[in-house]
Amino acid sequence: MMDITLSKIANFVIEGNAGEIPQLVQTALQDGQDPQEILNQGLIAGMDVVGKRFKEGDMYVPEVIASSKAMHAGLDLLKPLLSKSSGSQSGVVILGTIKGDVHDIGKSLVSSMLEGAGFEVVDIGVDVAPERFVEVCLEKKAHIIGISSLLTTTMVHMPAVLHKLEQEGLREQIKVMIGGAPVTTEYAQQIGADGYAADAASAVDVARDLMARRGTR
Ligand code: B1M
Q1: Pocket of ligand 1 (CB under 6 A)
Q2: DSSP of 122-182, one letter per residue?
Q3: Ligand 1: which residue has its CA nearest to atom 29?
Q4: What is the pLDDT of residues 153-193, one digit of tens each?
Q5: pTM of the full predicted structure?
Q6: If DSSP codes are grouped into helix, strand and coil, which group holds residue 197?
């Protein structure tokens, strides 16, 4: 049975009530709830409902924005707890949402989880041009580029990042992982990406695997 505080958190996300969420998250933490559980059963559970209602036309864009603000209000508090780093540096990841796409909640979760696993994450935001991923990757001497897309109309820009890496002669050195709701393993294979993760937790496994596969640089 779901904890009452967590179901309240989920409901406030659905209602887009950002003001109430920090206090409730604090209460859940004081009650000894695991930050990951608060995230999964509170914030993400609420956002799942929002997604379904949005799809069915029962919620509109302003309401969804209010819900995502509410989700962020909780996420901001949980982030440092989710990303208790082991202190060891696992690798540098450039992370962004592809051109034309402003969805950033999933990407932020991936960022937190990677940081939690000891990766240095350079979050370059949303609506990022393919060339920009490569530019920052060079600047930061990164090992992995992570690309998020939530729209079928924007995932088609992902291959351009791979092409740019090829053009720059970097394709062998830099690993590319992709994710986001419409993205699949098959799509990753089709475009020649090195990895795909369905959620933030498995993004860590994929990133670790990519680091192992790339050897040392
Ligand atoms: Co938009 N939206 N949205 N939206 N939105 C979706 C994605 C949609 C599925 C809703 C629907 O119709 N059911 C639909 C896409 C349809 C499609 O293309 N197949 C959609 C649409 C159509 C749109 C607009 C076009 C609507 C419009 O204006 N007509 C528009 C586009 C704007 C744009 O980007 N240019 C739009 C706008 C918005 C808002 C701005 C209102 C808001 C975004 C706010 C923000 O992010 N700051 C929004 C939201 C919130 C959603 C839903 C409801 C929720 C997305 C979310 O945050 N999920 C979404 C419906 C849904 O997904 N249920 C929807 C929670 C998050 C934790 O999950 O992002 O999937 P997710 O991330 C997961 C995994 O995917 C994975 O790990 C994460 C954590 O486990 N993952 C990765 C993500 N990135 C990864 C990268 C990795 C690895 C794993 O490696 C690098």
Answers
A1: 44, 47, 50-51, 54-55, 61, 64-65, 68, 100-107, 109-110, 146-148, 150-153, 177-182, 197, 199-200, 203
A2: EE--SSB-HHHHHHHHHHTT-SEEEEE---TTTGGGHHHHHHHHHHTT-TTT-EEEEESTT
A3: 61
A4: 999 999 999 999 999 999 999 999 999 999 999 999 999 99
A5: 0.81
A6: strand
